[in-house]
Amino acid sequence: MGDRTHTHTGAAGRAATAGRPASVRNVVLVGHSGSGKTTLVEALALTAGALNRAGRVEDGATVSDHDEIEQRRQRSVQLSLVPVEWDGCRINLLDTPGYADFVGELRAGLRAADAALFVVSAAQEADAVAEATREAWEECADVGMPRAVVITHLDTARTSFDEMTRICGRIFGRDDPDAVLPLHLPVRGPEGPDGHAPLTGLSGLLTQQVSDYSSGERKEAPPSGDRRGPLREARDRLIEGIIAESEDETLMEHYLGGGEVDVTTLVRDLERAVARGSFHPVVTAAPAAEGARQGVGTMELLDLITRGFPSPEERTPPAVTTPDGVPRPAPVCDPAAPLVAEVVKTSSDPYVGRVALVRVFSGTLRPDDTVHVCGHGLTGPGGGARPCHESDVRAGALSVPFGKQQRPLDHCVAGDLACVSKLGGAETGDTLSTDGGPLLMEPWTMPDPLLPLAVRAHGKADEDKLSQGLARLVAEDPTMRLEQNQDTHQVVLWCMGEAHTEVALERLRSRYGVQVDAEPHRVPLRETFASRTVGRGRHVKQSGGHGQYAVCEIEVEPLPPGAGIEFVDKVVGGSVPRQFVAAVEKGVRAQAARGLAAGNPLVDVRVTLLDGKSHSVDSSDAAFQTAGALALREAAADTRVELLEPVARIGVLVPDDDVGAVMSDLAARRGRVVGTEQSTGERTLVRAEVPEIEIGRYTVDLRSLTHGAGRFDRAYARHEPMPRQLAERIREARENSTGS
Questions:
Q1: Please, is 477 exposed, middle or buried when counting C-beta atoms within 10 Å of its C-beta (0-12, 13-18, 19+)?
Q2: DSSP string, 105-120
Q3: Which residues of 687-719 are buried (b: 16+ CB within 10 A; e: fewer)?
Q4: Ramachandran area for residue 377 (φ above 0: left; ψ -120 to 50: alpha; else beta)
Q5: Residue 385 scores a pLDDT above 70
Q6: Which whole-number Å values give the CA distances from 719 to 245, 405, 690, 733, in the listed order?
Q7: Which DSSP helix (H) or strand (E) runs through 270?
Q8: Quick check: 296 and 199 in contact, CB under 8 A?
Q9: Sign for the pseudo-dihedral over CA of 70, 71, 74, 80
Q10: What is the mean pLDDT of residues 629-635?
């Protein structure tokens, strides 16, 4: 962070391999879509010598966005790893998507990293710090992860570093604004014809030197006279912030008494405060100009990462247990210890099949090692998890990704990241272990997907490939959930949002060769009788040989919700022989499953068999099954059959300013607000009960209503009667579709 000689041994086209945990830095980049994360990774890779020429997002030429979907959309949709080397350290840069639909990729990056760079755009002003970015900041704060803020796009017109710094201090430093302070002030060149002054360098507040990048290479010089005043004011505040975090309690008294504090001491205390996550420096960076090797601030940022961010040895690893929940000693970040690693992401390669991105927490992973794969799946907010699975597999080849390339590795030490092929059915969140028995790492949570996408195979040739393609898609992305709905007979892929569904359909087509059609999602309805009624089923046919003869009389009465179908036999005198009573019940239940008014299952009724007739020769099980079904249909014709719709219990977390709009919107959806609770960060939790048919697209609508700041969860509450007018429309729609 101060003056020193830089060495960067990474060469273009070649990534370095870490030999010890102390030389590894795992850094995740977090920020809103369009904040400049991918461009920043490109600039850092260029400065570190890992690239000969920086690519552009608009051209689809960056090392991070190498997937064809990302290139077409000009937007990151998956986590990417870009390793570079700086001053003897291997820096694993984890570039994450900024769009809220791909939060699963962000969570994977947070799990793999030991520190985070929060990237905000000065061009987007306050909107640059989106709700998803704030949530990620709070998640990092909860686990004490070191964080720094990088302000981008200062090289565009009408941007203010001071204003953006104040916004970051207000939002990220909510509890302590003096813990979020700049290390440098931007230096601008002469104004152009458009009135914009380009970014040419940085003034270091501690070194009191200007880093001038106007020539394309970093050069240091003392600040000009007109900058000394603003520099002094910002420097004093920074020094006070560093001293407040210092372990030396005498420094503050010495400084306030007018004494000078040695820069070496300040840098040392700054590095310690950053590493333990109590101080969050604000820096700025810009991509290199055409033909230049260094972007403004990129060398300073690489210095911050290597000197201020902790190595894996300094971070506390997740807790581990046996598969049955017995606690085990925490993994030790030592290459010689037993292997404990975790799959943080899975993807498919058209040539080598499934590839797992693995973070090694303990030990050393080598190709052809036999590892025990143990997984419980990732849990959602409700705590639900996939069934536990275990297997012993031999690890395939190890590699480190760099864009589309996979560069071979002969080993991966504790604290480092690597891609592993041929790990069998290993899924995201699975634990790899060797000596000492199978282990499970403490699970990390994923948000529940709440936007349904019903799909069907486009043609006959796609039917066989559809189930396999969907299964692979869900195994790769734990924020997707596959449902085979038994009531509606639809295949439903639950996603995080519209962009998520579009990418899923595109991947099915381009990666797995499956053409699918989306269809409207149907909510599973139920039917029940509104009042008591009776019905008579008569099935009599004679056409030579044995005929068919069965008559039964039933009474149907409604039951309380949740009672299901109850069948009662009250036949006296043997009018329906005992051996045929079960057949009547079977016919009644079969008809109930098929539905009566709109083709939905019948529930919550008691069917009582009262009387009937039989024939000694022509009666049979089949005849009485048919008669039972006919009796139930006749009973339905003499009374009103209600449609029951599922009602969801939802909790909507929104900023206080949006509570009124959200409650009005819920009322328009036939929702009932049952209460509100004040939450942290000037947010309110609105609890309500809403018919599920009204919230199929609520994920998208809520995001629009609250400008991306609202989120919700849902759980099934019960089925209840649908308004008669709406029920009639659904019946008419079914009759029309059946008639056509």
A1: buried
A2: HHHHHHHH-SEEEEEE
A3: ebbbbbbbbbebbbebbebbebbbbbbbeeeeb
A4: left
A5: no
A6: 56, 53, 11, 21
A7: helix 263-275
A8: yes
A9: positive
A10: 96
Are the beta carbons of 519 and 490 closer than 8 angstroms?
yes
Alpha carbon distance 588, 632 (integer Å): 6
* Contact predicate 337/414, CB 8 Å: yes
163 near 186, Cβ under 8 Å?
A: no
Q: Report which secondary-structure segment, H or E, holds 133.
A: helix 131-142
Which of 481, 318, 324 has the alpha carbon at shortest distance from 390? 324
Quote the CA–CA distance of 476 and 428 in Å, as a whole number: 7
Cβ count near 655 (within 10 Å): 17
Burial 571-580 (b: 16+ CB within 10 A, else e): beeeebeeeb
Give CA–CA dist 288/217, Å, rounded. Answer: 9
Calculated CA dihedral for residues 197, 201, 206, 208, nearest 10 degrees: -80
C-beta of residue 341 within 8 angstroms of C-beta of residue 365: yes
Of 544, 428, 368, 535, whose CA–CA distance to 108 is shortest? 428
What's the predicted TM-score (pTM) here?
0.87
Q: Is the pLDDT of residue 464 over 80?
A: yes
What local confidence, expressed as pLDDT, does residue 195 receive? 65
User: What six digits make up the tokens of 13?
Assistant: 């086209």
Q: Classify each residue of 118-156 as buried b or exposed e, where b means 16 or more C-beta atoms within 10 Å of its C-beta.
A: bbbbbbbeeebbbbbbbbbbebbeeeebbbbbbbbbbbe
Which helix (H) or strand (E) covers residue 99, if one does? none
The Cα–Cα gap between 432 and 364 comes to 11
The span from the CA of 222 to the CA of 245, in Å, is 28
Per the model's pLDDT, the better-predicted residue between 45 and 472 turns out to be 45
Dist CA 636 CA 537 (whole Å) = 12
Q: What is the pLDDT of residue 495?
A: 95
Residue 168, both tokens: 């970051």
Beta-bridge partners for 518? 455
Distance CA 421, CA 395 (A): 7
Token couple for 9: 């041994």
Distance CA 337, CA 589 (A): 61
Q: What is the DSSP letter of 177?
A: G
Sign of torsion over alpha carbons 355, 105, 495, 455: negative
The tens digit of pLDDT for each residue in 38-80 reads: 999 999 999 999 988 888 877 777 888 877 777 788 788 889 9
